[in-house]
Amino acid sequence: MWDRNQMAEIAARELKDGMYVNLGIGIPTLVSNFIPKGIDVTLQSENGMLGMGPFPTETQVDPDLINAGKQTVTELPRTSYFSSADSFSMIRGGHIDMAILGAMEVSENGDLANWMIPGKLVKGMGGAMDLVAGVKRVVVIMDHSNKHGESKLLKDCTLPLTGKSVVDRVITNMGVFDVVSGGLKIVELAAEVSLDNVRDITEAKLIN
């Protein structure tokens, strides 16, 4: 199966020249390290940064430069800074082309649950609800199953929803799936993952 970096590299194929893209917390932040050569995209962070570079080396670390997940990042010559209010105006106004987000659950019709587990401490819902409502395309990166081996691609989400029918594509450690009418269409499977493997572990309806 694919590891975290391979999943991020596959997600980076989604990037097109000239796009404005928001990267969520977790695996999605790794996408910035795999932007294809010749592709110029502008990465936006909810905390008020437009134009994030890749993660810094030890000599590049600046504790004042962080993304929405409080990880240190680098800036570009064209980077601009602004308030979180302006940042969310960009998101809500439809000015961000794509969001690449993590998730706890995705349903077969594209419902997304990624902000809380009832009974557990929640620091806040973050910007995911605004992102899935305001961006043009939503790509999710996540493990195919949870720590108990249970599918995270479900017929219906069991956790509180971030958005209904908002996900366009899901990239897991087992494969790539598009949300289409009637279920999840298999786009690509990891090298050593068979169709039977993925069907056995997936609750959501899969379409060849």
Search tags:
single chain; 208 residues; alpha/beta; Glutaconate Coenzyme A-transferase; three-stranded mixed β-sheet; 4 helices; 15% helix; 25% strand; globular
What does this structure look like?
The chain contains 4 helices and 13 strands. The protein is an alpha/beta fold and 208 residues long. Helix 4 links the parallel strand 12 and strand 13. The strands form 2 sheets. Strands 4-3-2-1-5-8-10-11-12-13 form a 10-stranded mixed beta sheet, sandwiched between helices. A 3-stranded mixed beta sheet has the order 7-6-9, with no helix packed on it. The model has no long low-confidence stretch (mean pLDDT 93). Helix content is 15%, strand content 25%. It has a domain of 144 residues: Glutaconate Coenzyme A-transferase (3-Layer(aba) Sandwich).
